[in-house]
Amino acid sequence: MSSVQTQQEQLSQSDPSPSPNSCSSFELIDMDAGSLYEPVTPHWFYCKIIDSKETWIPFNSEDSQQLEEAYSSGNLHACCNFG
């Protein structure tokens, strides 16, 4: 018997129980499919150069929403707080 076969036999004989954090397939079936979907909401970022590297920093939720509304309406100006 080869070592590969021996390892496979040991794996098949090991405890197959899932970890407490895992989710089994029957749990997913029991869940309402509508609760799994959440539409993506846009969020805006600005670029700041720190130590010669680009760092993208998120706007706060309120400013991000105002930027998205301005962009969607074709407005090229929006007031934001850089923090």
Give a verbal description of the structure.
The chain has 83 residues and is of the alpha+beta class. The protein has a domain at 41-82. Helix content is 41%, strand content 14%. It contains 4 helices and 2 strands; from the N terminus they run αααββα. The chain has helices spanning 3-13, 25-30, 33-36, 61-73, and strands at 45-50, 53-58. It has a two-stranded antiparallel ribbon with strand order 1-2. A hairpin with a 2-residue loop joins β1 and β2 (53-58). It is flat and about 60 Å long. The termini are far apart.
Mean pLDDT: 75
Note the main sheet: 2 strands, antiparallel
Helix-strand pattern = HHHEEH
Total of DSSP H or I helical runs spanning 4+ residues: 4
Distance between the termini: 66 Å
Strand-residue proportion: 5-15%
DSSP strand count: 2
Give me the Rg, rounded: 25 Å
**Poorly predicted tracts of residues:** none
Provide the spatial order of strands within the biggest beta sheet. Answer: 1-2
Question: What coarse outline follows from CA principal-axis ratios?
Answer: flat
Fraction of helical residues: 40-55%
Structural class category: alpha+beta
In short:
This is DDHD domain containing 2. Helices cover about 40% and strands about 15% of the residues. With about 80 residues, it is of the alpha+beta class.
How would you summarize the topology of this molecule?
Blueprint: H1 3-13, H2 25-30, H3 33-36, E1 45-50, E2 53-58, H4 61-73
Antiparallel strand pairs: 1-2
Features:
alpha+beta, two-stranded antiparallel ribbon, 2 strands, DDHD domain containing 2, WWE_dom
